[in-house]
Specification:
Layout: H1 3-12, H2 14-22, H3 28-54, E1 56-57, E2 63-64, H4 67-95, H5 105-115, H6 117-122, H7 132-138, H8 141-153, H9 158-190
Antiparallel strand pairs: 1-2
Helix pairs in contact: 1-2, 2-8, 3-4, 3-5, 4-5, 4-9, 5-8, 8-9
Length: 203
């Protein structure tokens, strides 16, 4: 699997690419190591550079910048991507029978992992934190990718599609927020970070 071509095709022509994906073996290990890690890894490197060396100004005059902030952001992106994709896929798979859809963890992981593509592509904008929000907004396109891919990858019947999709979106958002909060708390403590009026330390 060519990561660049897959990312480009799933964004530019999702319906066709989901059909291609459906014809491929659903190998969880290969999806994580061959797709999630490379894309999330690039986003993590961008975050490290952006927050480690460029930084961003915040309210009340403080500035978030420094090596520890870069490591915090990078690890949050990378570890969060792997855990969020895996747990979301697990929940999506458990819910599948309730919506007359295929219960197959590999297929669920395909659906979730490839739908997250815009989030990691958008995450590359973290290399310049002042415009990182644009990348975050691009990540919302992943919800559309999931909508298109669900009936193809999970064999979801038309009358169950909307219900399954809405529940999946809710699960995705909740998992992402909870994992982000947990990892944020852990890494914040590990790197000794805090918000204050002059955050430009840890070089």
């Amino acid at each position: 699997m060519n990561v660049i071509n897959r990312a480009k095709n799933i964004i530019a022509q999702p319906r066709l690419e989901w059909t291609v994906i459906d014809s491929e073996p659903a190998n969880p290990g290969q999806i994580i190591s061959g797709y999630v890690l490379p894309l999330a890894g690039l986003a993590a490197i961008a975050a490290f550079i952006g927050y480690g060396f460029i930084g961003v100004g915040g309210m009340f005059g403080f500035r978030v910048v420094g090596i520890n902030w870069g490591l915090y952001q990078a690890l949050s992106v990378l570890v969060g991507a792997i855990i969020s994709v895996y747990i979301t896929a697990l929940v999506v798979d458990v819910l599948a029978p309730s919506f007359n859809s295929q219960k197959n963890f590999g297929r669920s992981l395909q659906l979730v992992a490839y739908s997250f593509t815009p989030a990691w592509i958008g995450g590359l904008l973290n290399i310049f934190p002042p415009i990182a929000m644009i990348g975050a907004l691009f990540g919302l396109y992943g919800f559309y990718l999931m909508y298109v891919g669900m009936p193809i990858i999970k064999n979801t019947p038309e009358d169950k599609h909307i219900g399954y999709y809405v529940v999946t979106i809710i699960v995705t958002i909740v998992v992402y927020m909870v994992i982000g909060w947990i990892l944020g708390s852990i890494f914040f403590s590990i790197f000794g970070l805090s918000y204050g009026p002059s955050i430009n330390l840890h070089y």
